[in-house]
Design a protein that fits this description.
Blueprint: E1 2-5, H1 11-21, H2 25-33, H3 39-46, H4 62-75, E2 78-83, H5 87-100, E3 107-110, H6 123-131, E4 134-140, H7 147-155, E5 159-163, E6 177-179, H8 195-209, H9 221-231, H10 237-252, H11 256-265, H12 273-290, H13 294-301, H14 305-340, E7 348-351, H15 360-371, E8 375-381, E9 384-390, H16 397-402, E10 410-413, E11 417-422, H17 427-441, E12 450-453, E13 455-456, H18 464-471, E14 485-492, E15 497-499, E16 505-512, E17 518-523, H19 530-534, E18 539-550, E19 553-565
Parallel strand pairs: 1-12, 2-3, 2-4, 4-5, 5-6, 7-8, 13-14, 17-19
Antiparallel strand pairs: 8-9, 9-11, 10-11, 14-16, 14-18, 15-16, 16-17, 18-19
Helix pairs in contact: 1-2, 4-8, 5-8, 5-9, 5-13, 8-9, 9-10, 9-12, 11-14, 12-14, 13-14, 14-15
Length: about 575
């Protein structure tokens, strides 16, 4: 693993922050690295406020969207809330539908079938709307490329409001309103909202127009925080504020469906955004992956505690099935790559027609972690091949797919994750073109895992106060990662040992040369480096600083990310 030490921030800024905030050097350096340079900016960072949220009417077409919804309510029209089948989509549908139903009853929900309809707005969904006398569809987390589908809906007398956050194509759908801050002509100040975040801005504008108090909307933020954690959007700006307050709801008074999920897997611990990503999100996703995403929407909208527990149990069973499929398909994919000897390519592209479409995205992530290459996993979907794409740090897989568009029938997504469909006869041509594009454009340093290190710290600087202030940097995520520190001239105090069922974790107590301070550390998956700690040469270690609660006592513990031999110590 290649260590990348982030550039030192401006020393004058660091000194200024130390003085005005009365904080240590490591804290001041971290703040400066994250663009915080003054007392006022630090206060905003450490004390998120609803006042930091932007006026929703700054978003292009917001006025038109609100006016069309209110006109539908006044005329007694039927409204369909339509969303994608992943976490962002299902939370978005639950958010919009549950809000609308607080004052209007003629609201239905729709999630496309992953296997029969595929991603995004489908003709089948529009036909469902037409058959049920629905004249307004609000599409969330999808629709920005649904030019043909929106035109089809217009022919049937159905209007569309699109709430999306994916990159627009060359043509924008002819909808009543298109809410997507990534549109070039949208002046909304924050561009990184998830689909549920865009949906929240719409209900914020709608509620404001209806003369409602903002506080009425706070209970919906558990859904927004769940979507932010699941969709891995930057935890900066408006997202950080929404995630901060959403986590408060998740940990104090979440909706019955989320509470039921949490009680099954982690009933006591306070949830972080990372917990949302790894505990809650996969279970909500499992419904759409293994059965149907509408199950997740129903769970998220359920108000009865007992019914929510029953539904959560069913979704937990779906998640167990998902884990089994994920494990077996990943093993098959790894075997295919090894057999074909493709480890030396710049890309990883695998296909098997009977792989479960619901887990190929997870499998693509696993392969990316193994080979550290832009990766596509294909399976059959009807008379087409469908794929999930995942990328590595610094490489835009969406741009790469755009350069291969002559071989692709449909695609969409983000910089690091995308989906596409192709005709089977184009697979080899696409695969070769994708390899050419990546080979010509990727920075070769991106083809190996890296560890970004925020800066150095002395072990004696790691105090309970430092740990408490670091906790206030949360929620962590892209754009605001958990700080990783480096300490040099480190040795174990003779306690290094392998632990865990398979002896693959490392436990030790570390101290720096010429220092009396020592601190416990654990390295998950680093058992193979135990011998380094048992040697005589000093080490440099990279780690995060965590809280370790045991038998009612709370101590500081280092979680090791990596360790290497350091330069020999000399006086």
């Amino acid at each position: 693993m290649r260590w990348i030490i982030k550039p030192e921030p401006d020393l004058d800024t660091v000194d200024h922050l130390r003085a005005v905030l009365n904080v240590s050097r490591p804290i001041a350096s971290l703040l400066a690295q994250r663009g915080v340079t003054s007392f006022e900016e630090a206060r905003a960072f450490f004390r998120p406020s609803f006042h930091q949220l932007h006026d929703p009417y700054l978003m292009k077409d917001m006025q038109s969207a609100v006016a069309r919804i209110l006109r539908a309510v006044e005329a007694g029209e039927n409204i369909l809330v339509y969303g994608d089948y992943d976490v962002d989509g299902t939370t978005s549908v639950a958010l919009m539908a549950s809000y609308l139903r607080t004052f209007y009853s003629q609201v239905a929900t729709y999630i496309p079938d992953r296997y029969k309809e595929g991603y995004g707005v489908s003709r089948q969904g529009i036909d469902f709307a037409a058959d049920n006398d629905i004249t307004l569809i609000i599409a969330l987390d999808c629709g920005i490329k649904a030019v043909e589908q929106v035109g089809y809906a217009r022919e049937k007398g159905i209007d569309f409001i699109i709430c999306d956050h994916h990159r627009p194509g060359m043509q924008i759908p002819d909808a009543v309103a298109v809410l997507d801050p990534k549109q070039e002509d949208c002046a909304y100040p924050y561009k990184e909202l998830c689909g549920c975040g865009v949906g929240f801005k719409l209900i914020q504008a709608l509620h404001e127009t209806r003369k409602g108090a903002f506080q009425d909307l706070v209970p919906y933020l558990d859904l927004v925080a769940t979507a932010i954690g699941a969709d891995i959007v930057p935890v900066t700006g408006e997202n950080r504020v929404l995630a901060h307050f959403g986590l408060k709801i998740l940990n104090s008074n979440p909706r019955p469906g989320i509470r039921a999920l949490v009680q099954q897997v982690n009933p006591k611990k306070e949830l972080s955004l990372t917990d949302v990503s790894f505990l809650i999100a996969p279970r909500i996703n499992a419904a759409g992956r293994m059965k149907h995403g509408l199950h997740a929407v129903e769970l998220l909208m359920e108000t009865d505690e007992e019914r929510a527990r029953q539904m959560a149990t069913t979704i937990e069973q779906h998640n167990a099935e998902r884990r089994d499929a994920d494990r077996s398909i990943t093993e098959e994919a790894l075997a295919l790559i090894e057999a074909a000897g493709e480890q030396e390519r710049f890309t990883t592209v695998v296909y098997k027609e009977d792989w479960h479409k619901g887990v190929i995205g997870i499998v693509a992530s696993r392969l990316t972690e193994t080979y550290y290459r832009p990766t596509l996993v294909f399976t059959r979907s009807g008379d087409r091949l469908a794929a999930s794409a995942r990328s590595v740090a610094g490489f835009d897989v969406y741009d790469a797919l755009e350069a291969c568009s002559q071989f692709i029938e449909q695609f969409g997504g983000h910089k690091y994750a995308a989906g596409l469909t192709i005709v089977e006869s184009q697979l080899e041509a696409f695969k070769n073109r994708f390899e050419e594009v990546v080979a010509a454009s990727i920075d070769k340093s991106s083809l190996a895992p890296t560890l970004a290190i925020d800066g150095t710290v002395q072990l004696h600087e790691i105090t309970p106060k430092l740990r408490r202030i670091l906790h206030q940097f949360e929620p962590f995520g892209p754009g605001n990662p958990k700080p990783v520190f480096m300490a040099t001239q480190v040795r174990d105090m003779g306690s290094a040992r392998c632990v865990g069922k398979d002896q693959n974790h490392l436990k030790c107590r570390l101290k720096q040369l010429n220092s009396r301070v020592s601190i416990d550390a654990i390295g998950f998956g680093l058992g193979h480096k135990c011998e380094l700690l048992q040697g005589v040469q000093p080490l440099k270690v990279a780690f995060t600083i965590e809280e370790n609660a045991w038998n009612g006592r709370v101590d500081t513990q280092l979680v090791l990310k990596d360790l290497e031999l350091d330069a020999p110590f000399s006086l």
